């Protein structure tokens, strides 16, 4: 058995499937580029048949990302497999990932099919998928609750039909590590032709055990783990890529396996996915949370100063986290700026670079020290692929104790028209949002608002994330500024621009 674990990222399929996390094809491509830098092995780019947007996303990624395997999900029905095959056609290496449920409860109530019929569907799906590619994955949906003997039978049949990967999803997050590990061992021992396929796992986090279950599976012979950045996904999410990968790295002594992930790219991937989905990362999230590497207690701080490893099992640098370096100041020139951005992995067009540099100069004037994280926040704003319908031209707020907060706002339209107006509110942010709503007659609902500082210090950039809903559609916006009211207004406008763009 190989000791290399294949990392199959499904952020763009299972991750994107969860309510409120949807991304358009361009945003998906942005994530795919980062996944390429991260060097995952497989990107599941979407579920081609599910919508024209998903088809386009898979197809765009298949055309643009060449260094790794691109996959599309497909139910075990011909029209799904044909759509996946078509969307994946331009990919250099493509995989069709087909699935059907195998647990008693799914077969009886959802599919209303008997075991024989399920085996027949699975085999036919794999055979059809093989007409489009040699790389076919079969998933037995709800495998963790499937009778093991039936699971062995299905796997044996699909491998004989040409499946090269067999996936064991814990679809509802029901499994417990020891038992899940046993199931994988059973598959390895009981499926006669298992040596012809890779055993994969796909764990959901309903009991908070998705990482533990995935790792138990690896210990028992699974050699592909399906996971997502920040653990996003249906309901409580999927196994988190950063946790699985770092556990295997930090505890190589125990796992004895390798993987190809460039862990230094993890933090950037986490930020990007958080930015594009609007899903903030909880501060105590393992590996990528804001507190993951901070030591608050005196005893811990003292220990770390004496010897880092007393309280730190991995170096923040290993995941590209924190240790945000002082990179540039107000005297830094364009060349240094461009080089630094390249170092951070940003690829900007000439105009974007121009604007980013102007904004950097303004920031460097306000802020003595400009860190990598500041630059990332600033540039991430700049590379938004959504055309800006409205931009903020001017903002003035007055607020204080015993004063009615008021905001005066000037917006620019792409046609160069200037819209100006004022409004009051409960606070300065509310006043801004009321002024914007009035100016453009916007009737959305603010579902969520949050603010975080990008780095530390009183002059830190404040990063605001908002979620706006209109007629059942939800979009998020994010913006950073040393002035949190300005960041709030820009984040709000960014969400509005997205809503208008989609329309
Ligand atoms: O959770 C699940 O069962 C899935 C399959 C389609 C792999 O996402
Ligand atoms: Zn899933």
Structural class: alpha/beta
Ions, cofactors and other ligands present here are: 3-methyl-2-oxobutanoic acid, zinc ion
| Overall pLDDT metric | 92
Full CATH superfamily name of the largest domain:
Aldolase class I
Q: Give the overall shape, derived from the CA principal axes.
A: globular
**CATH fold field value of the largest domain:** TIM Barrel
Separation of termini? 51 Å
Strand fraction:
15-25%
- List low-pLDDT spans: none
* Number of beta strands: 16
Tell me what you see in this structure:
The protein has helices at 11-15, 25-38, 52-64, 78-88, 104-111, 115-130, 148-161, 177-190, 210-219, 241-250, 252-255, 266-277, 298-306, 334-343, 350-366, 372-382, 428-440, 484-502, and strands at residues 6-9, 42-46, 69-75, 94-101, 136-141, 165-170, 198-203, 224-227, 326-328, 370-371, 391-398, 406-412, 418-424, 445-453, 462-470, 473-481. The strands form four sheets. Strands 1-2-3-4-5-6-7-8 form an eight-stranded parallel beta barrel, surrounded by nine helices. The protein has a three-stranded antiparallel sheet with strand order 11-12-13. It has a three-stranded antiparallel sheet with strand order 14-15-16. Helix 3 packs parallel to helix 4 (78-88). 42% of the residues lie in helices and 20% in strands. It binds 3-methyl-2-oxobutanoic acid and zinc ion. Zinc ion (ZN) is lined by residues 14, 169, 171, 202, 204, 234.
